[in-house]
Design goal:
Elements: H1 6-11, H2 23-33, H3 45-49, H4 55-66, H5 77-87
């Protein structure tokens, strides 16, 4: 399940630059999350292509390149928060 939060897609590659955590765990997390954005992940392809992540990483990038454009609308974090707040009333 993906929340389709727009900002999340753009922040995912940045986690590789954080001082905390093992690089391999960060790669694995990104490889699990980015494909959930479907075709919307094409927006960050230039950044993904700069990462040396091995064969599985390269396979993920190829699948994104060859995939269909994103169909579901991405929402902002603020929109997602508003939806969540309505559910807690």
């Amino acid at each position: 399940m993906a929340l389709n939060i727009k900002e999340g897609l753009y922040y995912l590659p940045d986690t590789l630059n954080l001082d905390s955590g093992k690089y391999s765990f960060k790669l694995k997390m990104i490889m699990e999350m980015v494909p959930k954005y479907g075709g919307h992940a094409k927006a960050i392809l230039p950044r993904l292509k700069t990462v040396k992540g091995g064969k599985k990483w390269d396979e993920m990038v190829r699948k994104i390149e060859q995939g269909e454009p994103g169909k579901e609308k991405l929402i902002s974090f603020d929109e997602a928060r508003q939806v969540g707040m309505k559910g807690n009333r």
